[in-house]
Amino acid sequence: MKELKLLHFTQDKLRISPRVNSVKNLEVKNPDPVRQQEAREYSKLSRCLLFLELGIGAILLLVLLFTGVSARLVGFLPFASLWSAALYLLILVSGYGIIVASLGYYQDFVLPHRYGLLSQNVTGWLSLASSGFSCVYVDIAATS
Question: What is the mean pLDDT of residues 17-31?
Fold first, then answer.
């Protein structure tokens, strides 16, 4: 059987963790049935929310394609084509972010708190979420 070793880096040296010395130590002999049920519930809710978010995205794409909203939005953009495309993408990403913000809050903050998977407070979560959202804007600006 292969040995699995965890490496810990310290300032002065590298050491191998004595706690995990084989794959056998990682196996759970008797999993807690209550925690297993909670894990199933969490997984099921997470999947449902994922499909809901995908459905919202698909509906928004269909609205853009078949209602003419996309053409009207392009008509309002007065810049050259490259800047118009970047601004168009920025408007779409912002709109989608606003629409799914409450779903993201529930999926990424409320649900993990309910099952004891997250100990972060709201301000910490908001700062992390806003930094991730700002990375999208930086990517859009970098590609245009």
Answer: 59
